[in-house]
Design goal:
The protein has 236 residues and is mainly alpha-helical. It contains 7 helices and 7 strands, in the order E-E-E-E-E-H-H-H-E-E-H-H-H-H. The chain is rod-shaped.
Length: 236
């Protein structure tokens, strides 16, 4: 589990968007919202949202600290560098706020804290330009628990002030899983009711139970609608 921030809803990854040139987590100019659909990790319920946040951000390498102070470097910057630094600082604030919103709303379903991608500014300091939060999207053993979990994940995906397209895709995936859980719950309730009627030894109740078993498989119309909605979101 792109704020144009890259939002990785990992397990789903919620990652901040990146913008062109200077930053990414979704970055400053070109929002990571334009990133591709989330990717599913093999063998796990994990989705990577806006991985472009990491790909587009400049690779960060440790550099020996210069004896020159940051303030001295800032005073030596030209107008273009000052503008870049201002943008980086703003991006750092946006990325951290974006990921914190995901993390706070995810609660116990977050698989860890937020992780960030950094970029070195013209002042020699590093700034967060991308980020992600891992979220467990696996279904629970109980349909009711799965429903509640997916509702929480949807809130987490859409928690930032400006959810990216990948955030919305993760929310759509959670909606599909929630719908599946509701279908499962409905089936269980119907079968319990009909079984109770059948156990009453009433010929009518028994006939109704048999008719249900033979002619009323679990409806998939609402599930198809959810999947269609997800596909439409993915196409954005």
């Amino acid at each position: 589990m792109e704020l144009n921030h890259s939002n990785l809803l990992q397990a789903s990854i919620l990652q901040s968007p990146i913008q062109r040139g200077v930053v990414s987590s979704q970055a400053l100019s070109a929002p990571a919202d334009q990133a591709g659909a989330p990717t599913q990790s093999a063998g796990s319920d994990t989705v990577s949202l806006s991985p472009e946040g990491k790909e587009k951000s400049r690779s960060y390498k440790d550099v020996e600290t210069s004896p020159q102070s940051s303030s001295d470097k800032t005073n030596e910057l030209d107008q273009e560098e000052v503008a870049e630094l201002t943008e980086l600082k703003q991006r750092d604030v946006e990325v951290r706020a974006h990921e914190q919103a995901h993390l706070s709303a995810a609660g116990g379903y977050a698989t860890g804290g937020a992780s960030f991608t950094y970029q070195k500014g013209p002042d020699g300091q590093t700034y967060a330009v991308g980020g992600e939060v891992g979220i467990d999207m696996s279904a629970e053993n109980d349909p009711n628990a799965t429903i509640q979990k997916m509702q929480t994940i949807k809130r987490a995906a859409l928690a930032p002030a400006s959810p990216s397209s990948t955030d919305r895709q993760v929310a759509a995936q959670a909606t599909v899983k929630e719908t599946q859980a509701r279908q499962e719950l409905l089936k269980e309730q119907q079968e319990e009711l009909l079984q109770a009627e059948k156990s009453s030894d009433s010929p009518v109740a028994s006939a109704r139970y048999d008719d249900y078993q033979n002619n009323n498989p679990v409806s998939v119309s609402s599930l198809k609608a959810s999947i269609q909605a997800y596909e439409q979101m993915s196409a954005l």
